[in-house]
Amino acid sequence: MVQFLKNQKHLFIAIFGGLSILTLAWYFLLHQKLSSEYKQSKQIKRSITDEVNNYRQMESQIVNMQDEWDILNTEFETVIESIPDKILFDGVTDHLYSLILNHGLTIKMFSPSDAAIEKKTIQLPISGDEILIEKFPIDIVLKGSFINFGQLLESLLNNRYRFTASNIKVAQKESASIQTIELISYAYFQSGIKKPLAKITTLKNKKIRSPKPAPEKIADVIPKNENMQKDENTIEDLPDSLKDLPEMWFEPATEPMIESRPITESEPITESEPAIVKKEAPAPPSAENKVFYNIVILDSKVCKKVKNNQPMDPGRIFPADIGRVYCHSLLDNNSGKHSDIYHIWYMNGELKAKVRIRVRDGKEIPAVSHREVAESDKGTWKVEITDSDKKILDTIIFELV
Fold first, then answer.
1. What is d(CA 316, CA 380) in angstroms, rounded to the nearest whole number?
2. 41 and 137: one domain?
3. How far is 102 from 393, CA to CA, in rounded Å?
4. Is the Cβ–Cβ distance between 333 and 393 less than 8 Å?
5. 49 in the same domain as 114
6. Does pTM top 0.70 for this prediction?
7. In this predicted model, what pLDDT tens digit does every residue of 236-287 receive, in sequence order?
């Protein structure tokens, strides 16, 4: 071996061969693998660079997309907030009825449907809650001029409640300024599956009593203490945002209760007329009785007050400073179950309040509503008594002077 290394030729060959083997081993074992990984890294870097550039371009568009989203979301919330809750069905239909009258049109038929023709479930994007939107048709027949009808359509477009109209038909007569107009109006209502979005204004400093099961006796709606302060719910006490809500929500219970009291000597009453109570066996309905769907109106009066479920000081003309006027109805409910009737108050042809009264089954059932009045309420008043199908059972006209 020593002799081999002493030979320079052999030494050169040995060193060169060793270096060649090391070089080949480095190339095949390390360099190729590192080179392949480097190429892959360059490709990944190039791909990431392209993605970063795309993201930067998209980031520059986010501001515009956010602005468009805010505009669309605001419009969507405006539409949803204009759709009232389903519990306001009667109030919304009464609002539309009053709106038509205020535009100088005469209503020949106004028939809201109790069944929705279309339902859609909408998920709110921010809260994730779901609401159910229902569409109810209202068949309407009007008489009036084109100008008043056009103004009505504009007011429906800008109304705080959402209304639409379709199937408009006009029966025009030659040389006539009044036309018969038929249309179908659609009212939209929502009911929250989780949480409704519509803002429902609640009464301030007012307690709304939830309905209770009907007792065996008749519940007294008229306060027995005549000196009680006037803290009951009235239309005049409500804020402007609640003017269009039906007064029936703020009225006390409407089934009078006859309270049991010890028998005492009653003072003679000289101011009021004695109430007539019919105790004879029920006779067949006469022509004077108004019979609609098992509801028979026996007597209806407007009076100054009601005591022991009897009208006191009835009349047709009352002073404007009386403070409160009562409408007392005596009826027979032959339906075999509880039924609803309505006292609808008008002043000079303008709808002022609609009071729903739930009456039990039986004979000679009293139904009472009242109205707070002031000096500004002078004029001709009318109270229409209707059933749940909007059929007029009786009408009372009186004046405030």
1. 10
2. no
3. 24
4. no
5. no
6. no
7. 444 454 455 455 445 444 444 444 444 444 444 444 444 444 444 444 444 3
